[in-house]
Design a protein that fits this description.
Immunoglobulin-like, 2 domains, six-stranded mixed beta sheet, globular, disordered N terminus, TDP2-like
């Protein structure tokens, strides 16, 4: 067995022990109640299509506190494909996400009996989808070797075929390629090796690569290429408003996205995926959260431009609830979703009907890797 596979197995066993309710390490968050003997329990049983248990499936449970959802429990299934999570908010409605390498992911709506145990059976189909993740990893994991290793081990739970990365600082072309290989991607490309690069890694070759860097026009630049028969863009727009003193070239995000979309519009013969940190908001988030959404009056020009080019925001395609990607420290510590969605995966109109799963991955692990959460989709091959 290869060394990486042994490390992955050891890591998985550790996380299974740490994530299950039996470990005694469940954090109930802000809704903990003392002297509460009646428990609301969610007992998951995860199997494949033949009925065999799936060990190491990652389950995250969210409960509804309108207009928001809170994350109340998570962990890996045991050897019998089982995990029990406790909901100390004692709510009735919510959902769970279930994912495992080699299988299609699922989102399951949950309607529970309060202060009782609910048994939930979930079947995951054998993987027949393309898995794509986009992630702003905050200054290249701050060049922390332990963080890089932890990410490489964690990401194999989702086992994406393609990853679009932003803020890939502290990497050379060679070290980026070596890093990608630690999680099973033999192909990698960066826009540049100075400043704040974007990158693409893939299990298959990346062809027809274009690295677009225009000083004074594009704040970070972007990289695009073809892999798995689709055209992908990893982008990162200017984080500053035009009048900010740190925006020395007075770059406007609306101008950046126009350049990128004019480029993306050239590829009409293949599905196109545009992922990254847009530093812009979306009317869907304001409307799904409700009147209390504190970013409701922010600019939506960038996301509206993508829509004008007939690109589809993949999160609203399959969801009706608000879920932020930033800032991680606020979302993870306060429980309720008080953040904003700045990170997106958009697909061209000819691919929207192929999107079968989408998510913003909030977990105990992504609470630690960055100040942003990753976005994730699965599309029919």
């Amino acid at each position: 067995m290869k060394t990486r596979n042994i490390m992955q197995l050891v890591f998985l066993v550790f996380l299974m022990l740490a994530g299950c309710k039996s470990s005694g390490e469940f954090d109930p968050g802000p809704f903990a109640r003392e002297n509460d003997d009646d428990k609301t329990l969610l007992s998951f049983s995860v199997t494949d299509e033949a009925g065999d248990p799936i060990a190491g499936a990652y389950v995250v449970s969210y409960r509804q506190l309108a207009p928001k959802h809170i994350r109340v429990g998570e962990g890996y299934t045991d050897a019998q494909g089982k995990i029990q999570l406790e909901d100390q908010s004692h709510t009735t409605k919510g959902y769970a996400t279930i994912t495992a390498p080699g299988f299609n992911s699922r989102k399951v709506d949950l309607d529970l009996e309060q202060k009782q145990e609910t048994n939930i059976s979930v079947t995951l189909p054998t993987q027949d989808v393309l898995k794509v993740m986009s992630y702003n990893v905050q200054e290249g994991f701050k060049n922390n070797a332990q963080q890089k290793q932890a990410f490489a081990e964690w990401v194999q739970t989702y086992d994406p075929d393609i990853i679009l990365l932003q803020e890939m600082m502290h990497f050379t072309d060679a070290s980026f390629a070596e890093f990608a290989q630690t999680y099973g991607h033999d192909h990698a490309v960066l826009t540049k090796t100075i400043g704040i690069p974007t990158g693409i890694t893939s299990k298959e070759p990346i062809d027809n690569i274009r690295k677009v860097v225009q000083t004074g026009v594009l704040h970070h630049g972007y990289v695009t290429g073809e892999t798995f028969g689709i055209r992908v863009f990893s982008i990162h727009l200017c984080p500053y408003e035009v009048d900010n003193e740190r925006n020395i070239h007075r770059i406007a995000r609306k101008d950046e996205i126009k350049i990128i979309m004019d480029d993306a519009a050239l590829y009409t013969s293949v599905p196109v995926v545009v992922g990254g940190d847009l530093n812009d908001h979306n009317t869907f988030d304001r409307d799904s959260y409700g009147a209390g959404y504190r970013y409701g009056d922010r600019d939506h020009t960038v996301t509206n431009t993508l829509k004008a080019y007939n690109f589809q925001d993949t999160y609203p395609l399959l969801h009706s609830e608000f879920k932020p990607t930033w800032p991680v420290d606020n979302v993870s510590s306060n429980g309720p979703n008080e953040g904003a969605r700045l990170d997106y995966i958009f697909v061209s109109d000819n691919a929207k009907n192929t999107v079968v799963y989408s998510d913003i991955i909030q977990s105990a692990y992504t609470d630690k890797f960055s100040d942003h959460y990753p976005t994730y989709i699965e599309i029919k091959k």
